[in-house]
Amino acid sequence: MLETLLYPKSVAVIGASKSPGKVGYETFNNLVKGGYAGRLIPVNPTADEILGVKCYPDLTGIGEPLDLSVIAVPTASVKAAVESSIKAGAKSIIVITAGFKEVGPDGAALEKEIARICAAQNVRLMGPNCLGLINTHHRLNASFARKMPPVGGISVISQSGALCTAILDWAAARRIGLAKLISIGNKADLDESDFLKALSKDKETRVIMGYLENILTGDEFIKVAEEAASVKPVVLMKVGVTKAGGKAASSHTGSLAGADIAYGAAFKRAGVIRAETFEALFDYCTAFAMQPLPKGDRVAIITNAGGPGIMAADAVEKSGMKVTTLGVETAEHLSCKLPSAASIANPIDVLGDADPERYALALNAALDDDTVDAIIVILTPQAMTKAAETARALAGCVRGNKPVLVTFMGGEDVMPGREELATAGLPDYPSPERAVAALRAMYDYVLWRKRPPRIVTRFTVNRRRVERIITHHYRAGRLQIGEEKAKDVLAAYGFSVPAGQLAATSDEALEIADRIGYPVAMKIASPGIIHKSDFGGVRLGLSNAEAVLDAYDLMMSRIKRRAPEVELDGVYIEKMATRGREVIIGMTRDPAFGPMLMFGLGGIFVEVMKDVTFYLAPITADEAMKMLVSTRSYALLKGARGQRPVDMNSIADGLQRISQLATDFPQIAELDINPFIVGEVGVEPVVADARITLVQETKP
Question: Do 564 and 593 fall into the same domain?
Answer without folding.
Answer: no
